[in-house]
């Protein structure tokens, strides 16, 4: 019985003992069993076997369950990245939102902690935390990027159902940016715009939108089935730049649709524009909210507004319901990472979350997500972070304005009462030097190694940001002076170039909705023969990403002339199947 008493299987013990030995050859009288005693012994042996088999199994299952519970628990980082705190997954969202956990950048800390684990990895991605990283890219960006390129492990939370570090990081962002809820975006501001439109507009609803909206709005119209009601923004032909829209224009558009019995799903405003022109969002909100109409703001270029008193007010501060910001532009997260903010109760936040799950990758990059958390942390620790960039931009603007032949875009360039232009955008014109924006940009780049942000037919835009150095703007000013010295007198005797730029957005005619045109059959025609046809593709000089022709619009003389001029200058065209723009697709009705 030694085997039985030490936990070995009693069945194995009996299998090793012949029956006659068990019954009649016992060495100890007390263990010699006959008749009823033998039967009793067999029963006890069987029960003992069950106990010894069952107890270890229960213990193992309980231990495994405990390990699984810990592994898949909600992990929230404490002050030390190496000792994550684990909270019970049964905690309700209300309880979870009551306190923001410790640590200054929870998602960054969780990523660092997880990447430092000494584990055998059998999960994606295939480079296996950098062990199989392509050497050419690893040499370029370092092995650390691959080490931290991790999938949605339990320790790193779930972007579409956040309960741990992502929820914590998003709450911190909402607190800093002044919203009631913030979503992290890994598909850029584009997916935030699309989700905002889809969450507020059902098929057939009208979306009031400026005609100089970003191409992401057009894709949102295709996805949602909403019908556009375009507002034509003020256009300065001398600069070939469109401004913002006014509350009066929005009010007129809403009334016109109401009179026709149409339902307005939302109003979308681009503020600031790529050139930094801000619309009166507060005034637009005052027009919309009494009617129960939510206001969406494409604030891609205004993520920094909240972080200095001299900067314009943010869309959320002015009462917008949804604001989408490119955190990667003026702020310092990685390219393609953005945030979507909401406030008020006009928009169903669950609907927004569902739309984002449809639109965003199911394999989000934790490098992008953690960069949003890191950018937020960086801003929260440096309250005066924009003092220097604003001082640099102001001094640079003053110096540029006194250079002969150089003009700087400012509010007086527009007749409308726009509240502000972003001080960190410096848009220059060299038209008085007889130079187009493209010519000036080429000279500045090839001759002075100045890289601009945005080039237009009659302007060049430079952005001052957190990384701009004094020597950079000094170089820009000196280069602009050189441009003036070289071309001011050389071209002064030449006749002024005729301003052949016409407003491409003034006279639009919509025959189909973007969704109808997108899914219609099409044919290709020469661009010279496209006048009067219904455009079947989105044709857009990029940057700035403002479409000249949208699917469903009639090709007009103004839009065709503008595109021909753009093609002549060799400008990049986005959206057209024929990148050379010798032909375009039109709807085959």
UniProtKB/TrEMBL annotation:
An MF annotation (GO) of this entry: carboxy-lyase activity
Residue ranges annotated for the Orn/Lys/Arg decarboxylases family 1 pyridoxal-P attachment site domain, each copy included: 106-400
InterPro entries hit by this protein: Orn/Lys/Arg_deCO2ase_major_dom, Orn_Lys_Arg_decarboxylase-I, Prn/Lys/Arg_de-COase_C, Prn/Lys/Arg_de-COase_C_sf, PyrdxlP-dep_Trfase, PyrdxlP-dep_Trfase_major
Domain Orn/Lys/Arg decarboxylase C-terminal span(s) in chain numbering: 512-564
Residue ranges of the TM segments: 40-60
Keywords of the record: Decarboxylase, Lyase, Membrane, Pyridoxal phosphate, Transmembrane, Transmembrane helix
Cofactor: pyridoxal 5'-phosphate
Family, per entry: Belongs to the Orn/Lys/Arg decarboxylase class-I family.
Protein's recorded name: Arginine decarboxylase-like
Organism of origin: Panicum miliaceum (Proso millet)
């Amino acid at each position: 019985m030694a085997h039985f008493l030490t936990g070995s299987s009693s069945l194995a013990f009996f299998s090793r003992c012949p029956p006659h030995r068990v019954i009649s050859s016992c060495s100890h009288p007390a263990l010699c069993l006959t008749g009823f005693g033998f039967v009793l012994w067999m029963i006890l042996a069987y029960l003992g076997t069950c106990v010894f088999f069952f107890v270890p199994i229960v213990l193992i299952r309980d231990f495994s369950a405990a390990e699984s519970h810990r592994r898949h628990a909600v992990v929230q980082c404490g002050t030390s990245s190496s000792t994550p705190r684990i909270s019970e997954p049964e905690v309700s969202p209300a309880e979870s939102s009551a306190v923001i956990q410790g640590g200054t950048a929870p998602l960054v800390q969780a990523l660092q902690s997880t990447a430092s684990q000494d584990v055998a990895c059998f999960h994606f991605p295939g480079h296996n935390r950098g062990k199989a990283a392509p050497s050419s890219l690893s040499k370029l960006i370092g092995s650390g990027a691959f080490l931290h390129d991790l999938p949605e492990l339990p320790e790193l939370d779930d972007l579409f159902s956040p309960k741990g570090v992502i929820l914590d990081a998003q709450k911190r962002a909402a607190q800093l940016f002044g919203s009631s809820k913030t979503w992290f975006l890994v598909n850029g501001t584009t997916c935030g715009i699309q989700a905002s439109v889809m969450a507020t507009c059902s098929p057939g609803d009208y979306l009031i939108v400026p005609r100089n909206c970003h191409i992401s709005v057009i894709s949102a119209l295709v996805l949602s089935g909403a019908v556009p009601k375009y507002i034509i923004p003020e256009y300065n032909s001398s600069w070939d730049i469109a401004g913002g829209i006014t509350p009066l224009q929005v009010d007129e558009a809403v009334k016109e649709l109401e009179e026709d019995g149409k339902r307005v799903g939302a109003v979308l405003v681009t503020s600031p524009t790529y050139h930094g022109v801000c619309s009166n969002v507060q005034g637009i909100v005052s027009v919309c909210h009494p009617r129960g109409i939510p206001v969406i703001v494409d604030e891609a270029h205004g993520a920094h507004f909240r972080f200095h008193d001299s900067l314009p007010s943010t869309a959320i501060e002015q009462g917008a319901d949804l604001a989408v910001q490119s955190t990667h532009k003026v702020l310092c997260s990685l390219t393609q990472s953005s945030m979507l903010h909401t406030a008020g109760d006009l928009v169903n936040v669950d609907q927004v979350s569902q739309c984002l799950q449809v639109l965003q990758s199911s394999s989000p990059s934790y490098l992008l997500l953690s960069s949003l958390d890191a950018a937020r942390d960086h801003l929260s620790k440096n309250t005066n972070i924009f003092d220097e960039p604003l001082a640099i931009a102001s001094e640079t603007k003053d110096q540029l304005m006194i250079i002969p032949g150089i003009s700087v875009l400012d509010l007086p360039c527009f007749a409308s009462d726009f509240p502000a232009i972003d001080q960190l955008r410096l848009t220059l014109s060299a038209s008085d030097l007889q130079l187009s924006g493209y010519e000036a940009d080429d000279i500045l780049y090839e001759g002075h190694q100045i890289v601009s942000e945005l080039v237009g037919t009659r302007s060049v835009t430079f952005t001052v940001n957190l990384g701009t150095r004094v020597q950079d703007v000094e170089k820009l000013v000196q280069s602009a002076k050189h441009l003036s010295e070289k071309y001011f007198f050389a071209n002064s005797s030449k006749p002024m170039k005729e301003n052949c730029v016409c407003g491409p957005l003034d006279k639009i005619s919509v025959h189909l909705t973007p969704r109808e045109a997108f899914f219609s059959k099409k044919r290709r025609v020469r661009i010279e023969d496209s006048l009067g046809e219904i455009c079947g593709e989105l044709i857009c000089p990029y940057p700035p990403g403002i479409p000249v022709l949208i699917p469903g619009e009639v090709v007009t003389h103004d839009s065709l002339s503008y595109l021909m001029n753009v093609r002549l200058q060799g400008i990049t065209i986005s959206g057209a199947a024929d990148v050379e723009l010798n032909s375009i697709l039109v709807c085959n009705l």
